[in-house]
Amino acid sequence: DKGQYRHYMLKEIFEQPTVLARTLQGRISKTKVLEAAFGADASGIFDKVEGVQIVACGTSYHAGLVAKYWMESIASIPCQVEVASEYRYRKVFVPKNTLFVTISQSGETADTLAALKEAKKSDYLASLVICNAPNSSLVRESDLVFMTQAGPEIGVASTKAFTTQLIALQLLTIALGRRHGLSADQEAKMVAALATVPDEVAKALTLDTEIKITSEKFADKKHALFLGRGVEYPVAMEGALKLKEISYIHAESYPAGELKHGPLALVDADMPIVAVAPNNELMEKLKSNLEEVQARGGKLFVFSDQASAFPSSDDVTVINVHSVPDTIAPMVYTIPLQLLSYHVAIVKGTDVDQPRNLAKSVTVE
Ligand code: F6R
Predict the structure, then answer these.
(1) Which of 20, 115, 158, 194 would be 59's cystine partner, CB 3.0–4.6 Å?
(2) Is the CB of 51 under 6 A from ligand 1?
(3) Which intervals hold domain SIS (predicted)?
(4) What is the pTM assigned to this prediction?
């Protein structure tokens, strides 16, 4: 039932404050992550983990890429991320005491399931799935299970599944991190920030009207470039995937520092550039990347916060997101990008919930 909403996708975007709260419920105390959320055996396994291999497809793969930044910077352990269709057919080297993690909304994605089956023949410490479908194949086949509480996702384009996966992955990062130098104080700070995610996401949703107006500037465009740096780069990748899936606009994502190495050649007045730009340690570098884009006549759409003080102009549309701690910025900045792709699709008149050529769950190779 779509309720008051015109599409399932919009309903699911707006459900995020509720389902994110549900995904956190019982998984954190005021100051700590509660490891039982990963299964009764989780703590004993986590004690031994020295590295993480993440495998997933599509949007779930992008969640994994965000987690790589977290794992290495917060948990101080190596983390590899790969799409399942590549992983499954490759001879892999498995470092000692590596945890094999799959991420899947449906739990039935054929390549991800095949990758897990391959992994079970290798020398992994254990397998963990982050999944939204309780009775799914991936849940049955994995040693440890973390259930996201997004509820059924009907729209083909994944929205609430992604942000709840990010919550799960940050809880995992903290659980592993506390064994590798993450202090109780740092953990408490991160947990406090996580507890604000539902409210911050609700604030981001109030940008809906502004984004709807902005979306009209994309309607006649054939291409768009999405830029981010650091942990916001995979957020930009996910933004580009959403736009191409439901509006059929060719959208590419790049880490902003790569512009000069090729993609800058594409930039002209017909190429909108979307930048994910919270005020973090990479902000100044990103700003100078974006100045290069502007100098070539590119039209910029910058998702930023007040603190970044991004000047708007005829060629620069700044959409101000409420300022949040770096650790939760990926969850929050995903929201306006989901809304952007939704409204662009509406302007273009595409079938938002059922984009052409796509299926909700890819159960064949
Ligand atoms: C994109 C999308 C797909 C899925 C991918 C993996 O909006 O929905 O890219 O993310 O097919 O599906 P799951 O997470 O069910 O394994």
Answers:
(1) 158
(2) no
(3) 42-182, 214-355
(4) 0.97
